[in-house]
Each structure stands twice: as structure tokens, then as C-alpha cells.
Amino acid sequence: MSLLGGDDLKEQQRINELELKINREKQKLDKKIIRQKILMGAFLIDMLEGGKLNGLKSYTVDNLEAFLTRKGDKELMAEVIEKLRGQETLLNNKTDNRS
After folding, report:
1. Range of the structural domain that residue 5 is part of
2. pLDDT for 9-65, tens place per residue?
3. Could you please report the per-residue DSSP string of the chain?
4. Is the pLDDT of residue 94 over 60?
5. What torsion, rounded to 10 degrees, do the Cα atoms 22, 24, 29, 32 define?
6. Is the model's pLDDT at 95 over the cut of 60?
7. Are 44 and 58 members of one domain?
8. Same structural domain for residues 3 and 23?
9. How far apart, in whole angstroms, are the C-alpha atoms of residue 96 and residue 99?
10. Is 58 domain-assigned?
11. How high is the pLDDT of residue 4?
12. Domain co-membership, 25 together with 62
């Protein structure tokens, strides 16, 4: 063992251990946030499909596409937006016919 650098190695090992611990905690937090987003999305989908909140479909149709910034995201959600737009149109036509 050298007279110089022995403590440096221990300190570097401790730093590495702490960095691993930080990365594990970040991964846990990321998973938690992703799960929260998935559950929120599932809740909103249930609200949209069930027509449980007046104006939500219309608001979503009017604003979702502008919210999405990436081309791939817009392409992914295009079918959903069109389906909602069609449902909103049907609902509006039924409401107009009843008046």
C-alpha cells in the first residue's frame, strides 16, 4: 500500500456508491411520475369516452393538436383527435336536431 492516495481511492469509491444511489432514486422518481401520467391519462380517457364532463371533448379536440409539439406525437394522436372530433360532431348534430 502506498503512503499516498489510499484515502483518495476510498473517497472515490464512496462517491461512486453515492452516484449509484442517486441514479436509483432518480429512476424510482421517474417511474413514479410516469405512472402518475398514465393514471391521469386513463382517467381523462374514461371521462372523454363516457362524456362525463360537458365540454371536455370539445376542449380536447380544439387544443390537443396545438399542445403536441413533436411530429411523431401528432401522428400518433391524429387518429384519437379525429375520433373525438367525429364524436363531438355527432353529439352536436343530436343536440341541434333536438332543438
Report:
1. 1-52
2. 899 999 999 999 999 999 999 999 999 999 999 999 999 999 889 899 999 999 999
3. --SSSHHHHHHHHHHHHHHHHHHHHHHHHHHHHHHHHHHHHHHHHHHHHHT-STTHHHHHHHHHHHH--SHHHHHHHHHHHHHHHHHHHHHHHHHHHH-
4. yes
5. -170
6. yes
7. no
8. yes
9. 5
10. yes
11. 59
12. no
